[in-house]
Write a structure and sequence with these properties.
The structure holds two protein chains of two kinds. Chain A is an alpha+beta fold. Helices cover 23% and strands 35% of the residues of chain A. In chain A, α2 (100-110) crosses α3 (115-128) and α3 (115-128) crosses α4. Chain B is mainly α. The radius of gyration of chain B is 22 Å and the shape is globular. The relative contact order of chain B is 0.12. Classes of the chains: A alpha+beta, B mainly alpha. Bound molecules: adenosine-5'-triphosphate (ATP) and magnesium ion. The site of magnesium ion has 3 residues of chain A, from α1.
Chain lengths: 372, 314
Amino acid sequence: MLDTPVSAPPIIELRGVAKYYGSTAALHNINLSIANGEFLTLLGPSGCGKTTILRLISGFESPSRGELLLNGEDITDAAPERRQVNTVFQNYALFPHMSVWDNVAFGLKMQRRSRAEISDRVSEVLRRVHMEALADRKPRQLSGGQQQRVAIARAIVNNPLLLLLDEPFSALDFKLRKQMQLEIKHLQRQIGITFVFVTHDQEEAFAMSDRVAVMNEGEIRQIGSSQEIYEEPENLFVAHFVGEINVLEATITSRLDDGAYTANVEGKDFKLRSKREFEAGEDVKVLLRPEDLIVYLENEHPFTGQFFLGRIDEAIYKGATVDILLTLDSGRKLQAAEFFNEDDVDISYSPGDRVALSWVEGWEVVLDSEGE
Amino acid sequence: MPRLPGGGGSAFRAFGISVTWFWLGAFALLPSLALLLVSVLDRGELDFFIPALTLGNYRELLGPVFLRVLWDSVRLAFFSTLVCLLAGYPFAYHIARARPKWRPWLLLLVIIPFWTNSLIRTYALILIIGAQGMVNRLLMALGLIDAPLVIMYTDFAVFVGLTYTLLPFMVLPLYASIEKLDTNLLDAARDLGAGSLRAFWHITLPLTLPGIVAGCMLVFLPSLGIFYVPEILGGAKNMLLGTFIKNQFLVANNWPLGAAASAVLTLALILMAGLYRLSSLRVAGREKKGLLGGNGDGKNPRREAANLPEAALR
Ligand SMILES: Nc1ncnc2c1ncn2[C@@H]1O[C@H](COP(=O)(O)OP(=O)(O)OP(=O)(O)O)[C@@H](O)[C@H]1O
Ligand SMILES: [Mg+2]
């Protein structure tokens, strides 16, 4: 079901949405469809407009241009209280004068549900988030993680079409954060509600999401599965924003029949693969993740296939891997990450060692030079 | 016990604490005890009081004269407080929700009247509501009335005077508690389906209750005790509690009876301070309390509340 999220009818759709505050644009032209049951994450640096998108969906801001459709219905001008959308606020925003129970029951009371129904649903949701024992406490008597659970319970008890979460873990310490990530992911699978999650932590985004939308300066720069975003970045911003990446300068020399090219990369001739179209003579960038690079000490290298020669500047041991900073003979500085080979424990990388560098053919990403 | 900031040198701490206790003892506790003592003494022929214990003064308070005074005073104070609350809440709300750079100036407008002697301000009211006052002249110029309305020397004039004089005491604590209210909570309430009215009822109102109670106390108690407003605007017809007490001390020379009436007023004050404390505890969890300091930082709301009516008389 989640493999082809876009083909299912979208639960929420943003069409050509822009938002201006005075003369500054917070969002330019957002087109976004989210499928029912999907876990979508908005990922991007501070100020790129993530919160603004959530506030447009929840109704606390209205778009300067464009429209929003919730379950096929135009909600562009609907008040927040009229949208079947709930939010987990960044600071939780639990009502301090109400018990956990009353906090969670609030939404149902506003819908004027019957006493019995409220009681059933609140206890069920509290059980789900493991808070039933603390139902009588006031929010200030709870730990950060517990407040977090109450905030989530208070939202999902209403069975929203869409749950919005704005950096819900930012106040939690590392360990609790990891635990809550798992819990929320499980919860989302169980209840099947569509989640729109905001974070600027790429690991968090990758770990939790069906799809990730990477944003910058009020635009969605790429949207796709974690793997697509990481392995097939569509532009340099995305490539740099998610993890480390090496960028090599290259010029296409000729186009081969099978979607492959020959190119001059950093002064050496290589065969490159790409789904993109390039012409002979075009300047391109070749992107390689550190872990895709294979480093051989020069004296061990078979010297077949395509490779660069270079020299190790620094080797940083990180337990299971070693990060190698090196300089190619062309002068380009690169970073590689090697796993320790258990069959070859003696292998050691030291500054100054000459190395040969290659990568698995076809793992490179080739972008045109403008793709900033 | 007052907790000193920083908790620095223990000598300074001890000094600060003893000064505070001395101050409290000398200027709050001792006079109150003296008052309580006098209220159970007998009235003398030549002296203000003679050292003979009696509950007669309190019994006299149960008589029709005082009960009438009490009833009139409480009724007037109640309506003044109510109107101050109804007018003060939206007022305070808008100041608290104004842009931050505007707030100090708007608050200044509330406070400026304090810079003028309140006696003078009360006399100035006559220029507005008197027979030849601005209100009457305006209404007659507009042809709405033929003869001047009689406003001066009525309960209504006293009510106007009290409301005008005491409104800032309502606005300031309300402002303090509304300003502290986290607007995220209102967003959360709307997100959960509450319209703005219900969000106000379920979130804003309960969370600003300490400010409401503090403001009501600061208006209700002084409007029972202030004597110059009723005397200037209400004439001598309807005696109110403040005038009654003043007269016992200065005119009738019946100190014990005046003291007993004062004691009753003080008791009401203590009861209301207790109410305030209860309401703050209910909303606890938000560390800082209203303008009164509240219980959060160890200050005594009763003492501060008791100081404010004096400020109003200044
Ligand atoms: N009420 C507002 N008035 C003016 N500008 C605003 C307002 N709200 C947001 N902005 C601007 O819009 C842009 C996007 O803000 P937004 O809060 O959506 O960013 P964000 O991606 O959520 O950032 P962060 O990760 O820091 O939370 C920012 O440049 C911000 O300054
Ligand atoms: Mg944000």
